[in-house]
Design goal:
329 residues; alpha/beta; 16 helices; 12% strand; globular
Length: 329
């Protein structure tokens, strides 16, 4: 099973970084964007304003033609979760049957409460849904720094082949068949990263940060179990690994959003103009889904309440600290 030509749908920082990684793995890469200025800049300078100081591999060909990108053997869908339906729908009629569409978004669709691979299955039924997620920052991957992620597809042969196609000595996709576990880890950790950022922005200390991350992971495990995720996936790269990274680094947009909230900014001010912190859109959906299956998630509830304007940071913290002390579960 050869995947010699990889398309990357979305030329933001993460999409460009993954395009570079796939090119370094020896693949021919088509990087699709709808932004003409972006396309011209990449084509002429072999650089992207999203990744300053990074040279884009010559094997990466930028294109504004989705038809051209759809000629690839597999495609990485690297757009925000809430934009994924639109892009996958546009690509659906252009791709051949059996082509893997690998979502790289870490979120749950608002309104439908669908996971990203479910969006792919619904909008492009002839495609093979897959997901790539894990502890990774675009700048690290683009510069060839050692990074390990998880790539999951329902068929282990396809998951293995895709991992081998884009993997290198420094970009290491471990393969899995646990689609649900990988996407739950990626989506939920963003919400807890916001909470961790609030702790940092509020100056509550390292002990509080460690407690928050640990109890957030307990919530992630409970939610994952209720939705059929495998425990080993949630304790792996795309669960615990990604949680550790995004709950501790200002490179994480979600962590930075939380810091701004903790420092007193309103949700609108904290989110800013980029609106790329996936956790801001996932929090309320995650808590709704948790209630549907009677999963207790007090930290996620607190984040959703702050973002929705139902509670201030002070009120949310006071509510969490007023919870009864009990056995650790």
């Amino acid at each position: 099973m050869a995947f010699d030509h990889i398309a990357v749908l979305g030329a933001g920082a993460w999409g460009t970084a993954l395009a570079n990684a796939a090119a370094h793995a020896g693949r021919r890469v088509s990087l699709w964007t709808i932004d003409k200025t972006e396309a011209d800049t990449i084509a002429k300078t072999r650089t992207s304003p999203m990744l300053p100081g990074v040279t884009i591999n010559p094997a990466v060909a930028v294109t504004m033609s989705l038809t051209e990108a759809a000629e690839a053997d597999a495609a990485l869908v690297v757009v925000p979760a809430q934009a994924s339906r639109e892009v996958v729908t546009k690509a659906a009629s252009l791709i051949r049957a059996g082509m893997p569409l690998i979502t790289c978004a870490k979120g749950i669709e608002r309104g439908t409460r669908k996971f990203m691979t479910e969006v792919i299955a619904e909008c492009a039924p002839s495609a093979v849904p897959a997901i790539l997620s894990g502890p990774s920052f675009a700048a690290d991957v683009a510069r060839g720094l050692p990074t390990a992620v998880t790539l999951a597809a329902g068929d282990e042969t396809i998951a293995t082949a895709l991992s081998q196609a884009i993997g290198t000595a420094t970009f290491r996709p471990y393969h899995s068949t646990d689609l649900r576990g990988v996407e739950i880890g990626g989506a939920a950790k963003n919400v807890f990263a916001i909470a961790a950022g609030i702790v940092k922005g509020r100056g509550l200390g390292d002990s509080a940060a460690a407690a928050l991350t640990t109890r957030g992971f307990a919530e992630l495990l409970r939610f994952g179990k209720a939705w059929g995720a495998r425990p080993e996936t949630l304790t792996g790269l795309s669960g615990l690994g990604d949680l550790i990274l995004t709950c501790s680094s200002p490179q994480s947009r979600n962590y930075s959003l939380g810091i701004a909230l903790g420092q007193g900014k309103s949700p609108l001010e904290a989110l800013g103009s980029s609106k790329l912190a996936e956790g801001a859109y996932t929090a309320s959906v995650l808590t709704e889904m948790a209630r549907e299956r009677n999963v207790e998630m007090p930290i996620a509830d607190a984040v959703a309440a702050i973002l929705d304007g139902r509670a201030t940071v002070e009120q949310a913290i006071d509510k969490l600290l007023a919870r009864p002390i009990r056995a650790e579960t």
